[in-house]
Design brief:
Distance between the termini: 54 Å
Enzyme class: oxidoreductase
CATH architecture of the largest domain: 2-Layer Sandwich
Bound molecules: NADPH dihydro-nicotinamide-adenine-dinucleotide phosphate, ligand LTNE7NMQ
Number of domains: 3
Structural class: alpha/beta
Keywords: Amino-acid biosynthesis, Metal-binding, Methionine biosynthesis, NAD, NADP, Oxidoreductase, Sodium, Threonine biosynthesis
Helix content: 25-40%
Pathway: Amino-acid biosynthesis; L-threonine biosynthesis; L-threonine from L-aspartate: step 3/5; Amino-acid biosynthesis; L-methionine biosynthesis via de novo pathway; L-homoserine from L-aspartate: step 3/3
Cofactor: a metal cation
Number of strands: 18
Strand content: 25-35%
Largest sheet: 12 strands, mixed
EC number: 1.1.1.3
CATH class of the largest domain: Alpha Beta
Length: 428
């Protein structure tokens, strides 16, 4: 059979993995799709850079149009990252009838609907399994595995870099900056790791998951995002003492027609399976009305796990080519979203306050919670080790975000409250 020719945009962490798997598993791939898969051309920024993999130098190009305009190329695998240039290359490639596989969540979270519409118009496939949770086949699972159910909640660790950092800080007492550097060296972090640590990467992934899971037009602006850069070793130690692990969680919830999506550092009860998801591993919990609770676990970043998802998409495109059904999949119809208000978003909260250490303070603090009908699960007061103040550690029962914000606003005008050191959502 005629070989399938692939143009690879990018030969960094993921691109290198794609070449290794396509070459190393060639026989298995051929047996599934019935023809050889050949990486015909590879786009890089700098052809003379030394690389950890040998690629025939004649295949390397620094000009994306060498690939986009090449009529011999059937499929483009985009693993270079970035948004605007990449969007242009992909739209142009679709206009020329090429199928696309991408790992680019930044692009798909922002321009996904435009790209998928264009693909449909041109009878092309656009697959993006690797864009969320690296090696876990969660996108295919949401589209196919849950097609018969109605999802009410998607909750997970969807960023490997921040889970790697929080795990090392929690288990080894490691310093934030040192572990971030290690995550970068291992190829887990984004080109600009701010998007990992400030939660944007996870927010993009949650946009994709929530859109597919709730079949709703969720956009990045709908996600309430907070990263881990302000999580201190002290916060992690408090969490552990109380029986929790600190995790950066993405949480998308639906009640009737109303949804909320957030990414935030969250204290997860030790007994919850997500609390023991460590290092670069990701896990996604999906709750369906009929199926109940399910969990998907695996490496969320890194060369080979991510490339596994990319090459699986490539195999799917080639199988569709064989069957002549590219671009013929039924597209999802998205409902117009209705976002929950802060009154409708409920969870347990952890608060750490520094207060004056004198009679009646605890009563005033608890009175503020009572005023806004926030019920408390536990309250602990202890002296501060270094300051002439007391610390109050509070865990609430389920309370609305609006009510907790009102309590926090009340603390601002209470002279006995010196500072609100930390506030975290609590799960489990
Ligand atoms: N790393 C991971 O674990 C995961 C990454 N992803 C996504 O996969 C994509 C790639 O990530 P990753 O492999 O880590 O990125 P890298 O930074 O390691 O590699 C990027 C590659 O693209 C090339 N490149 C970048 N910009 C251009 C440009 N303007 N013109 C030509 N070539 C360019 C680079 O060339 P050169 O080598 O010459 O510099 C490099 O080979 C991103 O979208 C990322 O978000 C998704 C899941 C996991
Ligand atoms: N930087 C990302 C890579 C995979 O998407 C992460 O750490 O999860």
């Amino acid at each position: 059979m005629k070989p399938i020719k692939v143009g690879l945009l990018g030969l960094g962490t993921v691109g290198t993995g794609v070449v290794r798997i396509v070459e190393g598993h060639q026989e298995d791939l051929q047996s599934q799709v019935g023809s050889p898969i050949v990486i015909e051309k590879v786009l890089v920024q700098n052809k003379s850079k030394s690389r950890g993999i040998h690629v025939n130098p004649d295949k390397l190009t620094e000009d994306p149009w060498d690939i986009v305009n090449d009529p011999e190329i059937d499929v483009i695998v985009e693993v270079m990252g970035g948004i605007e240039n990449t969007r242009t290359y992909i739209l142009e490639a679709l206009a020329r009838g090429k199928h696309i596989v991408t790992a680019n969540k930044d692009l798909m979270a922002v321009h996904g609907p435009e790209i998928l519409t264009k693909a449909h118009e041109h009878g092309c496939d656009v697959l993006y399994e690797a864009s969320v949770a690296g090696g876990i086949p969660i996108i295919r699972t949401l589209i196919e595995g849950f097609s018969s159910d109605r999802i009410t909640k998607i909750m997970g660790i969807v960023n490997g870099t921040t889970n790697f950092i929080l795990t090392k800080m929690s288990k080894e007492g490691a310093a934030y900056d040192v572990v971030l550097k290690e995550a970068q060296e291992l190829g887990y972090a984004e080109a600009d790791p701010t998007s990992d640590v400030e939660g944007l990467d996870a927010a993009r992934k949650m946009t994709i998951l929530a859109s597919l899971g709730f079949r709703s037009d969720v956009s990045l602006e709908d996600v309430d995002v907070k990263g881990i850069s302000k999580v201190s070793r002290e916060d992690i130690a408090y969490a552990k003492r109380l029986g929790y692990e600190m995790k950066l969680l993405g949480i998308a919830e639906r009640q009737d027609d109303y949804i909320s999506v957030a990414v935030q550092p969250t204290m997860v009860k030790n007994s919850h399976p997500i609390a023991s998801v460590n290092g670069v591993f990701n896990a996604v919990y999906v709750y369906g009305e009929a199926v109940g609770e399910t969990m998907f676990y695996g490496a969320g970043a890194g060369e080979l796990p991510t490339a596994t998802s990319v090459v699986a998409d490539l195999v799917a495109v080639v199988k569709n080519l064989r069957l002549g059904v590219n671009g013929k999949q039924l597209t999802l119809t998205y409902k117009e979203k209705k976002l929950k208000t802060d009154e409708q978003i409920a969870s347990k909260y952890f608060l750490l306050l520094h207060v004056d250490d004198r009679a009646g303070v605890l009563a005033r603090i608890t009175q503020a919670f009572a005023e806004f009908e926030v019920s408390l699960e536990s309250v602990v007061q202890q002296p501060n080790a270094t300051l002439p103040e007391a610390e109050i550690i509070i865990i609430t029962h389920d309370a609305s975000k609006a009510a907790v914000n009102k309590v926090l606003a009340a603390f601002e005008s209470m002279d006995v409250v010196k500072s609100v050191k930390s506030v975290y959502r609590v799960e489990g």
